[in-house]
TrEMBL record:
Organism: Streptomyces lividans 1326
Top-rank taxon, per record: Bacteria
Protein name, UniProt field: Uncharacterized protein
């Protein structure tokens, strides 16, 4: 696909276009985002079950993502009003996928994984778009209470940034094909930004798999705040 002019796509556009194409969202999306979503779809459609499984495993596809794919597949099959039992049917597809090898997948299983990969790769495209828009603000982090903290001045107001351990991810957010044994502790992180002398306004995000990724995300958030692209 030819390169697009700067600003043609905004973070979130590709994921939105993917949901529109799946019939789960009724909205007008930019033609560039629809073209990107279509390109992702065509690439995934060229893969057979074994390659789909490899890609899904290597992208650490979660139960939540797989459930989204199963729901999108069932929605595509029902052009009329969705069946209330679709939620149960989608869960059955997810359970079977988690237990079966690719050679035992049926059409619905394959379609569910494909749909989930559309969404996963679209989300990745949006993350890359967001990362390309700005350089993270390098903060001076100091260790504090088992985590880290830093601060930045934006518009004359001090913004405090904290990085702390988060609660473990729910089971639905765990990878389908790479399960962590119960005996192995998983440490996740979250960041929190507050401003003002009493921290009356705040925003946080998590859980994030690693401290490095959480720190990077917090620094990107500070950059976005400083540029006026978002607010607390």
């Amino acid at each position: 696909m030819a390169s697009l002019p700067v600003g043609s796509l905004q973070p979130g556009d590709v994921s939105a276009a993917t949901e529109v194409r799946a019939g789960l969202l009724n909205a007008d999306v930019p033609s560039a985002s629809d073209a990107t979503a279509r390109c992702i779809q065509q690439t995934v459609d060229d893969l057979g079950p074994a390659d789909l499984w490899t890609l899904a495993r290597d992208t650490a596809m979660t139960l939540d993502e797989l459930a989204w794919g199963a729901t999108a597949t069932l929605a595509g099959e029902r052009l009329a009003q969705p069946d209330p039992l679709d939620v149960l049917a989608a869960q059955a597809i997810v359970d079977e996928l988690a237990e079966r090898t690719p050679c035992r997948w049926g059409r619905q299983h394959t379609d569910a994984v494909r749909a989930a990969l559309y969404r996963t790769l679209a989300d990745l495209a949006d993350v890359l778009l967001e990362a390309s828009e700005s350089t993270p603000t390098l903060l001076d982090w100091t260790a504090h209470d088992g985590g880290w903290r830093a601060s930045a001045v934006i518009g004359g107001v001090i913004h405090h940034v904290a990085l702390q351990k988060a609660e473990h991810s729910p089971s639905a957010a765990q990878p389908v094909w790479h399960r962590t044994p119960p005996s192995v502790a998983r440490i996740a992180w979250q960041w929190r930004i507050t401003n003002g002398p009493t921290g009356r306004t705040s925003h946080d995000c998590g859980p994030i798999p690693s401290a490095l990724a959480a720190r990077h995300a917090a620094e990107c958030a500070i950059t976005a705040l400083a540029a006026g692209r978002c607010s607390l």
